[in-house]
Amino acid sequence: MKPNTGFLSLAEELRVFILSFLPYRDILQCTSICKALRQTYVSSSELQYIVELGGQHLLPGPNTDNHTPVSQRLRLLRNKAHAWFKADVDSFEPFPIPFKHTTSIFIANGHVYLWDKDDDTARIIPLLPKPPQQAFQRYWSPGTLCSVPHSTNIDVFMDPAQNLIAVVYIVDHKTTFIDLKALSVDGVHPRAAGQTMFLSGLPGHDDSEIHTKNVELKGLGKHIALQRWLSVEQGTSSDDMWQLQIWDWQHSTTSNSVLSAEYGTTFDFCFLGDNRLLVFTNDMKIYSIEDMSQTPQLLACFLLPIPLDDTKFFLPVDQIQAQQSMYTSDPAHRILCIFMGTSLVFIISTKVFFDLGGIAATTPIPWKNWGPSNTRVFNQPDFCGIHVCGNRVLQTFCVRRGKEYKLHVMDFSPLAVMNRRGLGRVVKEPSTIYIGGYTYTPGDSLTTFLPYVEVVLDRTFRDSFPNIWIDEDRMYLFDFVKQTVEGTSYTLEVVAV
Questions:
Q1: What are the CB-based long-range contacts (under 8 Å, 24+) for 439-445?
Q2: What is the reported pTM?
Q3: N or C: which end of the chain has fewer CB within 10 A?
Q4: Is residue 142 within 8 Å of residue 119, measured between CB atoms?
Q5: E strand or H helix at 371, and its extent?
């Protein structure tokens, strides 16, 4: 007789160990075609945990508590996913913040960021109810963000995960620099390659011919990028251009990683993980930024079905990394949002920007080849507000024009679509919307297929809609019109999930 050495004859612990090396979809496929493997899966918290992480498109964070039993981590992960569809928006903790009407406000990573260009002031404040373990609270009064003579501050970027504040300033209305400092104490950032980062000029032009009209500074981990809109003098005339420069700020104060082109009607960008950059111009281009000694290398170009005119971008909140999170969303499986024209909202899965096998960078990819299965398009004439984090989207919809608004939570992760039927409306069927009136369109309609789960939260906002943000376990509601003002203090509603 031949010895029984098949896979199913192995001890269950060995089967679990072997299956744990498979991607979560392969684990599910194996357990769906074999009763014995199905029983192995059902009795193994470890395999279920792998599937739950993969199905929610999450990666273990650097601060994952490996001392906590896997069964407990699995339960917490599942409970958190369910909690988003049962969030009580009427049960919130009020949080007063100092605010002036000229201030820009942004919320991420358990902090609220305030930057007032007119007053040259900035603040970072930790938020309740659960700030990160390392929380920062600072106020920079006029003249303290940058002490360089004859300089004007034009943008500020703060990242608590890196203990970093970066300040963009112009000296004598001509030359632009970026200073890197620590959030916790005054002085140069201890991990920075130097105090000041220097910009590359435009070939064939000196600084006297270049005038900066506007800037935006973004960062993720080791990368900082500055986007500039420029007016370039050419004799008696001038041309508008944009320039994007990227630094590895911990290793060099200079950079050759620069993109520039003639100014178009639309331009924006975001980081997709540690080594990829997504740039929006008249289309969507993916660049590799692994080698910071050279110009970003084009990997692929994706065409959109309508022009990127009058466009707003709502890019992943993961641009600022969570400090103490046990999990982080997978850069290859996040959601980004584009509000195009006057009424179209495009929800796009970033997975399309990573599955590039065999694609020629010089050949633009038509919408029909990538868009329908990786996108969900909504027609929303009364667009109000939206914010994205990982695979979740928080969106404000108008119920009665100018009178009533509702909050919708949408989850585009595979497990939400598979397992959350009792907690929301599952949408798998294709949806078709009319896009007449736009030029250069391939037809009069768009049909898209990206599955999702949607829940309408039980609260109505009357007469005005709030500014909204979300992160891993909270949503933030800020109504500029209706909040009570006490001096310069407004109230932010923090809803724990």
A1: 439/306, 439/307, 440/306, 440/307, 441/305, 441/306, 442/305, 442/367, 442/368
A2: 0.87
A3: N
A4: yes
A5: helix 367-374
